[in-house]
Each structure stands twice: as structure tokens, then as C-alpha cells.
What does this fold into?
Amino acid sequence: MSLHSQNTISDAPPLSLDTSTSLSLVTSFWAVQLDNNTNLHRQEIEAAMLNNLNNPHFDQILVFLDHATEQSNCTHFRYRMAQLQERFDEKMQTSIVSEAYQSQKKKPVLDCVEISEQPNYYQMFLLATGSNVKGDVVIVENADQAFDDSVQWAKHIKNTTVLALSTWGFQPDIVPSPIKDHFNFVHGENSKEYHAEILPRCNDFWVYSWDGYVFHKQLIAGRLKAENFQRPTVKMMNDSTHETAFFKMNEDGGENAALWALLEGIPEVLVSNG
It folds into this structure.
């Protein structure tokens, strides 16, 4: 998966900053290990997180950090993001800054909770309705999603609707600032990896899938059914056993299966996509 941005609603009238409805972004990330500190996908995710941490429409960004250790945990993750923010701010002060970045006074709170393993979708939706989540409206998403000002529309979602967010890849010609600024800062737009691997991969359009869900927290609280978030294992398909397993985030087909599971548990929900 590559760094993505939510589709911009360019023809819609601008909304004033909605302070009556709070918005939480909920995602998962893996604790850095000694052998993947320079992992390119990790850098993409850090760029997306840095962008979202500068998006004034979020009230909270909650990261569930899996496989944390004494050497790599929420304390280290917060420090890493604070370092990136400080360096980015310094760069912006010495360059021509976009009006969008200059106007961003309010920033979301970054919260981090350590978990033992990569979460499955059932766990993520349960966590999204828990006490750690402060928002009235929640976006559960893959960590490499970067949002622009159009995310403010999420605060106006109907309380009977689940919005599935489909996204485009990082295409420099159409991705708005400050998303482009954050990505270029973390990756370096002149790096060999940027041109050889990331741009060609990100320019492919992903179809028949999505990367996030928007909903009112109370819509799904207490209504999830664990059995809907499981599917047959390879062993079951091979020998007719009844073994099943929860599907995880970023697993092939996991996003599609998660939406089906939501609809099975809450059949009256209206589904929209954007």
C-alpha cells in the first residue's frame, strides 16, 4: 500500500470548522524493529501520520502500536513523531509555506496504546468504540492514509451511515499541499527510492477495495458479532475441518470482508462510499 489522500470535494461549498462534533482517527502501526528502521513503507506511513497530525479537523489521532518492546514502544513512537514535527516546522519556516499550512492553528492530540500483535478487524472496531477513543465520529483506517481538508465532511455523516473511503495513490500532479509537503519532507522527492519504487507503485489505481471506514461511535458500539469477522483457514478448506480465523487489517480482501461483517451485524446501516 502506498501513501494515499482522500478524494478532495473540490466543488462542494466550504464548511466552517465544526467544533460541536469531535473526530478521531484510529489506526494501527508496528513498533520499529532493529532491521526495519529504514523500511520504505514505514516512511510512507510516517509521512501520512505527520500530515494528519497537522490536520486541524482531527481532534484525536489514536495509534494502536503492536509488538512493542522495552526498546521500541509508545514513548519512542511519540518521540519519533515529535522529532519529525520539529524538523518539518523548521523547514517550513525557512521556505515558501503554503497558505493551508500557515492557517493550521489547531492540531489533534496524539494518543498511543500498546498491543501485543497486529490487530484484526474485529479488534479494531471494538477498540474504536472503547474509552480510549474520544471522538463522536471515528475513522478506522490503514495507517498510510493522508487526509486533506475534505475530511471535515466526516463530522457531518448521518448517524445511520457507514462511509467506506476509497482513495487514490500519491500522484504529485494532483495531490494537494500540505500532503505533498509532508511526503516530500519524509521521503525526499529527489531520492532514488522515491522515483524507482514509490511513484510507479502509487500511480496505479486501486479498485474494488477501500482503506477506511467513517461512522458514529455509538452506531456500532455493542453490536459487533465476532463470528462475522472470521473466515475459513487454509486447513479448513483443505480437509473440511471447521477451523476459522479472524482476518487482519491489510490482509488481502480484509477491507471488503470487514464491511460485509459490519453489515451482517447491523443490517439497517446505510452504506456510502467516497
Remarks:
- The first helix runs from residue 40 to 53.
